[in-house]
Amino acid sequence: MSPLSVHDPSAAVAGTPTDAGPDAPARVLPVLSAEPPTGSVADWTAQRREEIHALVTEYGAVLLRGLGVGSPAEVAEAAEALGIERMTERERFAPRRSHAPGVYTSSEWPADEPMCMHHELSYAAEVPGLVLFGCLTAPASGGLTQVADSQQVLRMLPPELVERFERGGWLLTRMYHDVGVPWQEAFGTEDRAAVDAYCAAAGLDHEWLPDGRLRTRQRRAAVLPHPRDGVPVWFNQAAFLNEQTMDPVIRDYLVDVYGPDGLPFNTAYGDGAPLTAETVQTINAAYRAASIGEPWQSGDLLLVDNLRMAHSRDPYEGDRDIVVILGNPVRLAGHVLS
Asked: Which pTM value belongs to this model?
C-alpha cells in the first residue's frame, strides 16, 4: 500500500491558477493511492471508509487511484462499501443512460464542448450530498473533471453580487419540448398527474402548454450553510444554466425558432431580473480561479462533497466512460424559496 498523496495537481493542468489570492487557502486534491488490492474493490474501500470520508470532510473531494475499477457494478459496490445511499435522479438537464437503479453514465454532452462548473441538482428540492465518479475508460486526451471549492468561490465573488443573490436567490426557468431533455425522461414518468404531484411537492411552478410542452419555474437559495459545519457555500447553477453560457450561434438559433421564452433552460436573479453577461463571466472567473483537477486514469474513483464542491468537464478526444452515482439525498433548510 502506498501512502496517501495530498498534492496540488494544478501545476500539471494547463491554464489552472496555482493561487487565487494572498488570503486564499492552499488548494489541494487528496489522492489516495493503492497497489492493486488483494481483495475486491468493495473490501478495500470498506476497510478505509473512515479515512476516505475524513478526507472528503477536510478537502471536499478525494481521488482513489490504483483500484482498477472496471465495471458499473464495481462502482456501485464501492458506493455501498462507503455507506452511500443511491438516489434516483429527477429534473436532469442533460441525457444520461442508466446502468442500474441509481447508477448512471455521465451526462451526454458534446465531447468538443466544456461542461461548466455546477453542483448536481442544485435546483432540486432534494439534492445529492455526495457524488461518486468511476472512470472505466480514460479519454485519449482531455476530459478532466475539475472541482472547485464553493466556499472559496464565495469568498472571491464581489460582496454586492453575493448580497443580491443572498437576498433573493436565483430563478431557473425550463422549457421541455423537442430541444433538450423531454419531460418524460427528466421526471421519469409519462404520467402528467405524477409530474403535477412532483412539482407540487418540490416547489416548482409549472404550466402545461399546447402540443405536450411543459414550462417550469423554481426559485432557490444561492448561498446556504453547509449542513455539516454551517459554513456558507455558493450552491447554485445560476451561471451554468444561463443563456449567456450557451454558444451564441446556438442560442440565437433557438431564440429565432422558439422565441426568447423557448430556451430549454435559463436563469435570472430571484426577482426575475436578467443576469448580465458580466455577472455570468464574474461567477465563471471565480470558478476557474478555484479549480483543481487530476487527469483521469482508467480504474479511478472520485468522491465529491456535492454541497461544497462544484465540478466541471473539459473537452476530450477518444472514448471516455465515466459512471456516476448520486448519493445521500438531503433537503436543505431554506433552499426552496416560494
From this structure: 0.91
